[in-house]
Write a structure and sequence with these properties.
alpha/beta, TIM Barrel, globular, 7 helices
C-alpha cells in the first residue's frame, strides 16, 4: 500500500512539473519567431513522429540549414526512422545531428552504449545531443548529484566519439533547477535551450528551439523549429564548410 501511495505521489509531482513547464513556455505569448535576418542559420529537430519526410523539399527552404534527429532513448530504444533520416538528410545536403533522449531510470553508461551502437561517427556532423526533460520521462526525479553522476558516466562511456564538446538540450526551468550555479559538475557543453515564448535569457545559449508547431514543405504536420544563436562561433564553422562544398 505504501508503494502505491509513493507511485501516486510521483505521478502528481511529474504532472505538476509538466504543467509548470508548459505554463512557462506559453506565459509570454503571443510571440514573433526569429527572422532569417537576425538568425540566418535555422533548422529543425525531428523523430519518427514526423513520419516520412521529403528531405529534398526541406533542403530547398532557406530556414532548414540543419536537422537534429532522434536516434535513441534510454538503454535499448532506437528511433524507427533514424537510419533512414540520417542518410536522406545527408544526401539532401542538410547538416545533421543526432540526439539521445536521456531517461532518469537507466544508468548513463548503458544509455551511451545504445548511442554508440546506433549513431554513425561521421565528419561534418553536429555534436551528439543529450535531451534532458521531465516530459515523457520515467517516474524518477533525480537529485542534482544523481543527474550529474549519470550524465558524466554517459559522456565518459562515449569517450569523445562524437566530438569533445556535446550539446545539452533542456528548457529554462530545468536549467535553473539542475545546471544554474552547478555547471562545473557537468561536462563542458553547448547549450540548446527550449524557449517557445521568448528569446532565451541564458547568455551562452548556442541553439534556440523557438517553436514546436512549425509548418514546412516536406513534412506533414507540426515540427520543432530551431535557430543557431548569432553569438555561437564554434558550431558556425560547420555551416561554412558545408557551404564551400
Amino acid at each position: 500500500m505504501k508503494r502505491r501511495y509513493q507511485a501516486v505521489a510521483v505521478a502528481i509531482i511529474l504532472a505538476v512539473a509538466s504543467a509548470a513547464y508548459l505554463a512557462y513556455d506559453r506565459a509570454m505569448a503571443p510571440f514573433s519567431p526569429p527572422s532569417l535576418a537576425d538568425y540566418p542559420i535555422q533548422g529543425i529537430d525531428i523523430s519518427h513522429h514526423q513520419g516520412a519526410i521529403d528531405w529534398k523539399m526541406l533542403a530547398a527552404q532557406p530556414n532548414v540549414r540543419f536537422a537534429f534527429m532522434k536516434a535513441t532513448e534510454g538503454g535499448d530504444h532506437r528511433d524507427a526512422r533514424f537510419a533512414e533520416n540520417w542518410q536522406a538528410a545527408k544526401e539532401a545536403g542538410i547538416v545533421r545531428g543526432a540526439y539521445h533522449f536521456f531517461t532518469f531510470c537507466r544508468p548513463g553508461r548503458e544509455q551511451a552504449q545504445n548511442v554508440l551502437a546506433t549513431v554513425p561517427v561521421e565528419p561534418g556532423t553536429l555534436p551528439i545531443t543529450i535531451d534532458l526533460e521531465f516530459t515523457g520521462n520515467c517516474g524518477k526525479i533525480p537529485t542534482r548529484e544523481e543527474l550529474s553522476a549519470e550524465i558524466n558516466a554517459f559522456f565518459t562511456e562515449l569517450n569523445g566519439a562524437y566530438g569533445a564538446k556535446p550539446i545539452v538540450y533542456f528548457d529554462q526551468p530545468f536549467h535553473d533547477q539542475y545546471f544554474r550555479g552547478n555547471e562545473a559538475s557537468f561536462p563542458e557543453h553547448y547549450l540548446w535551450l527550449r524557449s517557445i515564448a521568448a528569446e532565451p535569457s541564458v547568455a551562452d545559449c548556442s541553439i534556440w528551439q523557438f517553436a514546436d508547431n512549425g509548418t514546412l514543405d516536406g513534412i506533414a504536420g507540426p515540427v520543432d523549429l530551431d535557430a543557431l544563436c548569432p553569438a555561437e562561433t564554434g558550431l558556425f564553422r560547420l555551416f561554412q564548410t558545408a557551404a564551400s562544398k
